[in-house]
Design goal:
Blueprint: E1 3-19, E2 25-34, E3 42-48, H1 50-56, E4 64-76, E5 79-91, H2 94-100, H3 104-107
Antiparallel strand pairs: 1-2, 1-4, 2-3, 4-5
């Protein structure tokens, strides 16, 4: 099952690091995406490991993005905790529009009539 959400990258949080019980070093970084939904519009995703954290370095706050992610739940002492682990972040909209603004087709007035009522 593939899950994804689109929205504005609203904030990158600081990189966190530590050592697991097994003695392995770990790093994670969280970031917020504003979906524009009426209720609970912000979703906090996390990236684990240097390779995944590097993905976020290619995106800026304010970018329109599509985030692909996995959901997981773990039980601890009778309570459940959830993770939203991002594994891909893609820019949408803004980047391709800015590249096309200098092309003649972008600036040409439309000669087609639309059938929209407004």
């Amino acid at each position: 099952m593939s899950l994804s959400v689109k929205g504005k990258l609203s904030r990158k949080l600081s990189v966190e690091s530590g050592t697991s019980k097994a003695g392995k070093e770990w790093k994670k970084q969280s970031f917020l995406v504003d979906t524009g939904a009426q209720y609970n519009p912000e979703i906090c995703f996390q990236l684990f490991g240097d390779e995944k954290i590097e993905i976020l370095n290619h995106h800026n706050e304010g970018d329109q993005v599509e985030v692909s992610f996995n959901l997981s739940s773990k039980e601890y002492n009778g309570r459940y905790f959830h993770n939203i682990d991002a594994w891909r972040i893609e820019n949408i909209g803004g980047a391709s529009v800015s590249q096309d603004q200098d092309s003649p087709e972008f600036n040409a007035p439309s000669t087609e009539e639309d059938d929209l009522p407004f």
